[in-house]
Amino acid sequence: METLPATEVTEVTDETTATDAGRDFEAGVIVYNCECHTYQQVIELFCRHIPGMTPARAFELAWSIDHQGSARVYQGTRKAADEIAGKLAAGGLRVEVR
After folding, report:
1. Using CA of residue 53, residue 37, residue 66, residue 72, what is the dihedral sign?
2. Residues near 34 by Cβ (< 8 Å), separated by ≥ 6?
3. Structural domains present in the chain
4. Closest CA to 46 of 61, 68, 67
């Protein structure tokens, strides 16, 4: 009769993780390239209307929009996204909330 190798038994426990952790991030603001604004104008609009925006980050986003056609410039609650999109659109930018 063969002897089987010793095995180790470990207890398995279920962990519950919150599945609604991302629910505060309901919408994003997408800005599209329009060829009618300078980088400086776009950077100023982003810094004025997007919470926590820095000039360096605004430049990166403006560059992405210019070279890739669009960029997500904000992600947050639907209400905040709608407000920010409205302000950016009032500044002449082409925006979408999704």
Report:
1. positive
2. 92, 93, 94
3. 27-97 (3.30.1390.10)
4. 61
pTM over 0.85: no
Q: For the chain, what percent of residues have pLDDT higher than 90?
A: 73
Q: What is the DSSP string of 8-35?
A: -----------S-TTTT--EEEEEE--S
Closest CA to 85 of 42, 71, 93: 93
Q: How far apart are the first and last CA of the chain?
A: 67
Quote the CA–CA distance of 65 and 93 in Å, as a whole number: 11
Q: In this structure, how many other beta carbons lie within 10 angstroms of the beta carbon of residue 91?
A: 16
Quote the tokens at residue 32.
Answer: 């599209």
